[in-house]
Design goal:
- The chain is mainly alpha-helical and about 100 residues long.
- The protein contains 3 helices and 2 strands.
- Strands 1-2 form a two-stranded antiparallel sheet.
- A hairpin with a 4-residue loop joins strand 1 and strand 2.
- The N and C termini lie far apart (about 40 Å).
Length: about 100
């Protein structure tokens, strides 16, 4: 029981730190922060499969040696819209 109370106390401290940091973020960065938070929530609701992990960790440095993929009609419309932050390489789901 004591360990649970300590854990809750630590989480509350961490939440306060997060809120404090949010209060000083420039207005022009708030949408980016919200997108990242939405991504974190999405990620927790959609855990990666082993197939996802294998694909993400694959070596893509020699893609030019392969034939380009021929998209089938309708395939591109099935994806999730994302935003890529060039400076960090982070990918966020667009709302």
């Amino acid at each position: 029981m004591l360990k649970t109370i300590q854990s809750i106390t630590e989480m509350n401290k961490l939440r306060k730190k997060v809120v404090q940091r949010l209060e000083v973020i420039p207005d022009d960065k708030l949408q980016e922060v919200l997108s990242f938070l939405n991504y974190l929530v999405w990620q927790s609701e959609n855990p990666q499969t082993q197939e996802d992990i294998d694909w993400l960790e694959s070596d893509l440095s020699r893609l030019e040696k392969y034939e380009p993929y021929e998209w089938q009609e309708g395939e591109l419309e099935e994806g999730i819209l994302v935003k890529i932050i060039a400076e960090t390489g982070k990918v966020f789901k667009n709302n």
